[in-house]
Structures are given as structure tokens and as C-alpha cells.
Predict the structure.
Amino acid sequence: MRLIALTLVSGALAAGSVKATLTAPTHTPKIKTKWYYTVRVTNGGKPAPARITAQLVDPIGGTHPVMLGATQKPITNHAFTGTFRDYIVWPADSRGIRLTLRLTLRTGTTKKTLTYWVTAR
């Protein structure tokens, strides 16, 4: 399975540049199965401490929180260092609807937003 990556690079900090990368297996996941994704944040090439907030944006602009794994806890300002891995189980009612996974990452004073479109099948 081919991995598709979205990379966002910007600004320099005293220790180096912050780089945030989102990797996921496909833009068209199957419904009712785990769709894994990985987020990596580095500063100067080394794993950086960061906080992540994950949301789904629907076609009319509504935002919905993404739950952490099988819990009912939304991924809001969740702390991690270097790599964050999780999954989403796409419900049947999301089939055929183009959604956007929006990840907001904060490390120090730097804020990054990564987006990744998904249409469940």
C-alpha cells in the first residue's frame, strides 16, 4: 500500500526549523475499519515536544472533534514528543462524503496546521 505524505515546513527557531509531517495510507479508507495515521514533529531534525488538536471538517464547514483511539476523549491539546500515532474508524454515514482531517500542532511559539482530505468508501 502506497503511503501518501503531506509535509508543511516553515519558520526558523533558535534551535533550527520546525517540520511537521502527516502520513496516512490512503485518501479513500474503508468504512468500519481502523484507518491509521502518523504525525511527526521535529525541530532541527530532532523529535520536538508538541500539542495536537484533531478535527474533521465537513463540506458545509462544520467542525467535529476526532476521538483518541477507542476512547470518547477528543484529541484536544494532546501532548506528545516527536511522533503521534492514532486511528479513525469511519462510520457508514460518512461513505462518499469528502471530509477534511485538520490537525493543529503547537510547538513552543510555532503553530502548524496540516490538512488531509478523505472520502470513505
